[in-house]
Records
---
Amino acid sequence: MKKLIILLCILAIFTSGCSVNQVNSNNIDDIVNKILKKESKLKNVNFEGYNYYIPKGLVFLDKNDYNATLKDQYGNYYYLYVDIVSRYHKVKAKYKADKNAYYSSEIKNKKKFGYIEINKVKNKYFIEIMYNYMKVESFVDEKSLPEALTNIATILASVKYNDKVLDTIIGENILNYKEENYNIFKTKKKNTNFLDYVKEYDSYDEEEKDEDNLQIEEGE
């Protein structure tokens, strides 16, 4: 009996040790949903009509209108897009989970909604998370997956909009915002040009671009 108990304990330790290093559906749920439900009040990036928080270790490479490119300390890139038009019109969209994806789930948190979809491309993972009218994409290897998910969820949890400013921006220029070139409610999946985007920034001249990097203030 004692030998059986010892054997069961060893098996339990071995099993738990293996699961720690694996990123499965439960891990992803814990990482993303727990962060999003905290309703972060942190902010260190302010733009016209909205603000959000960029975690330590991430730096701006570029910003164009409502798009932004970030990079973490491990060389992973993050592409951000804020859809102020859909926010202005309070557009609602449903997400249908894709059973063929590595991970796919709708996000619901009070009045906010979105989705998370992860597709495996060769030996890497293409992450797409949309929440509260912002979408973040990243392309990482397996060991970077937990940290990338944490970074993305932290950014998305902090997004705040100034409706009065958005009313001014869009309300007075409504004809200029009729068409959206990029649909955040639709996933790119594996058929994406994001891989080309990664290749482009792999050859990025960081020493030259560093002088133009946007500076952000540390959150309180």
---
Amino acid sequence: MGLNKVYAKMFLWLGFGLLITFLTGYIVSANQNMLEFMFAGSTWMICAIVEVILVIFLSARIMKMSPTTANICFILYSFVTGLTFSSIFVTYEISSIIYVFGITSFLFVVFALIGNFINIDLTKLGTYLLMILLGIVICFIINIFIGSEAFNIGLVIASTVIFVIYIAYDINRVKYLLDRFPSEDNLAIFGALQLYLDFINILIDLLRLFGKREN
């Protein structure tokens, strides 16, 4: 299997994962009983913790998994993310979500093409991107206590920029991992997971900036 076939499978899994997440989130948000179950007690928090555990487990163990196990884990992660993502459909108007989804998709395509066609090895940026991202996360935590709206907007913009760059980085990285993964099917899932995280985070950041909230 060549790089193009890995890319094809990767984008297919990415699209499938996003579809699962958005359908799950919408269905939960449209059902009053499901909403009460998700948000009345600790269900949402439990799902969020499971979501974090799944993504860490999948990222760390994917090279040692069978392709079937990797596929199941990715589907499960997309579903659990959809459960927590239902809060987005409750918070923002559906027209606003669709609008921001379109903007996110445009940015994704542009920077995915850059990552694919650029002849520079972007994997060297990984450490710097991670350090900047961790710095942004720390600043978000600090701002919880400060409560500065201007600082928050600046952090959201910075987060958006980092994840947009991550799209090009993750696309580019697949080229250099092609010979290192024991299974190219697993590489497709790994790439889909990284791009999925980029897409979701950009979408959430843009909703924070431009999203119109429900009354």
---
Amino acid sequence: MAKMWAGRFKKETDRLVNEFNASVSVDSRLYREDIEGSMAHAAMLEKQGIIPPEDGKNIRAGLREILKDMEAGKISLTPELYEDIHMANEQLLTERIGDGGKRLHTARSRNDQVALDMRLYVRKEILEIRRLVLEFMEVLCEKAKDHLETVMPGYTHLQRAQPITFAHHLMAYGNMLKRDVRRLEDCLEGMDEMPLGCGALAGTTYPIDREFAAEELGFSGVTDNSLDGVSDRDYCMELCACLSILMVHLSRLSEEIILWCSWEFKFVELDDAFSTGSSIMPQKKNPDVCELIRGKSGRVFGDLQTLLVMMKGLPLAYNKDMQEDKEAVFDAVDTVKICLQVFSPMFATMTVLPENMKAAAKRGFLNATDCADYLTKKGVPFRDAYKISGTLVAMCIEKGETLDSLPLETYREVCPVFEKDVYEAVDLMACVRERKSLGGPAPEEVARQLEKLLKFLREKKEAQS
């Protein structure tokens, strides 16, 4: 493998060092970004009169042909032939157009070149992941529309707590995902600066036009300090932080679906196409997709940790440690994308079992708070009402009753304030409908939440088109 930097050295690089140092097996993924950046750089060099017009045109034409051949799978990018994607493209270009290809690297370094490639890649992937999150949010909203009045238990400490609706539960995740979208957009805005022109660390003596190159590549501006431009990867860390939070949300929902699929809950059933079986137990229908998403969240958290530890002790400017950023970012992006791609159709085809949800809500004394509120509204201090309601629950457990079925005489034995209208107060659907406070589970209030989220999705879709 010929070295572009071989002039300083009198001995060949050790074979193991070559293998250890080469990154083309990883950074070959950046071939398109590297070529796009190189074409913009060549156009700028030509515009500024730094290279002859003929060389500029030949460089761009040669790079277009290399891109075409790479996408057709005609070029093998192996460590035996190339050190990294930057050297690969330059060597291929020089082989095709001759000495003009050697002018491409004028006024730039691999340090600002790779910084540019990574920003182009991160920008592209943020847009794609955002699209997938919005797609899943649409699926979530469609499911919620059908279950505005599907009563289910709401939980704290995994204990049945108060009655809500399935739509209300889904809107909680819808709002989490909404914040995930905004985090991704904030990351995109923060990294929208072009580092090309920073050189190795101290810019260049050539009369370059960085703003021109930034405009060619669709950046809103350029990095303001050459040291910073080549030596930080905070946008990579920020992306992985955003993806880690997103995976927390997907993992939590996956955990709930795993519970809901069990015979102990049986609130939902996954479609056969998104379930697996057992090699020995014929009755099994396993939620493996959810379990894998729950497990893969740890990979993304690890990718973030890799970047944080890699960067925390590096002096300015570029250090070879930073070569390790790519595998972490690539892995986090790939993991999140496949999780979202499989989650949307799995969730869309999931069957909800409303009767089972309602039965579980009835068995959990979820209306105990409403019983206490009933007394409070009749003038009983809340702490007294709380104790009375708790006493009634204990009696129900002892007698095998529920608050719905407990005789009025028993109610009145505990507290004479109770009247027949207590049964309206403890009816589960009535309990849900009365929770009209902003953000609550009343159907009309959840419908408002749903419309707000749908409006958010419409605005994002319009902005993308």
---
Amino acid sequence: MDKKKITNMEVKKKNRNDVFRYLCKNGMASNPDIAYALKLSLPTTTQITKELIQNGIVEEKGEFKSTGGRRAKALAVSDDAGKAVGLDITKNHISLVLTDLTGRILKYERVFLPYAAEDRYYLEVNQKLERFLQECKCEGREILGIGISFPGIIDLDKEMVADSHILGVNSVPFSSVGRFFSYPCYFLNDANAGAYAEGIQSENMERFFYLSLSNTVGGAVYSNGKLEQGKNFRCGEVGHMTIVPNGEACYCGKYGCLDAYCSAKRLSEGKLEDFFERIKMGEQEAARFWDKYTTYLAIAVNNIHMVLDCDIVLGGYVGSSMGEYIRDVREKVSKRNTFAESSSFVRACSHKTGAAAFGASLKIVELFLEQV
């Protein structure tokens, strides 16, 4: 009897979760629409939406046009249901994103703020966050939490930033950072956050590798709606994969790492849009830099594909800016590929701006949705 009772409770929770996710994804819908889409009975659906309305996370927003009978109520996620913040910390900047439960970006901002492992840095980050929220006219009670993206190894078991070469810190407890903020904090690696932004809102939740090409190079494996972490939370750390034995020095202290050849800084210290404009204008020096860059990138992409046999998504600053020039990467990967297959498995990221901050905010949304 107890087992049956637990099972019924689990089914009810799943149905409730499915209904709320449907509204988050599709916007306004009627009970008949939801029932039909999720293959639930209309009474079950109506009872669930009634409970969600009572809980304050769904509301009626008018009525749909009549199709001959009684007009159906238009249901949607409540504007007051909650919002999530994404904070991406890099060596020289922070990025802030505010999203609602549907994953819609309400505001994005990137601020120059060089990292310092000091209290004053985090106090200033918090000040900028609170100003950001004030500009959004967002009250503290609406914030579900902050997703914080770091460039480094995030140990979820030990609850610490285990190592960040680029920021020059290690063994930083989450609590030592979270204490500066007024909201619950969740920490994740920057490449993982970018992959999460790319995958969580996709239709098919397919498995892919996200190659983050920013001022540092990182990676993440996304599969069936989740990030693969690895035994030591280093899954996807291809930035320190050797592609040239005894090659150029990497900031990590080793030689020949992918990061030393394919970080965004190898192309430009300024705006990458300007670099690709130089290529478009036929500048030979820019073309030579791009040819050298894509040669090494193709080696890495082909190696990753050989190991994982999945799509490769190019993200970060370079993936967001390359546009039509992804063809150059595809051509070189195709020449290296042992198997006769199209190089269309290499694609540019969908989220071009603030992907890590956005993904961090979506992780907060997902944690909330799991509890509905």
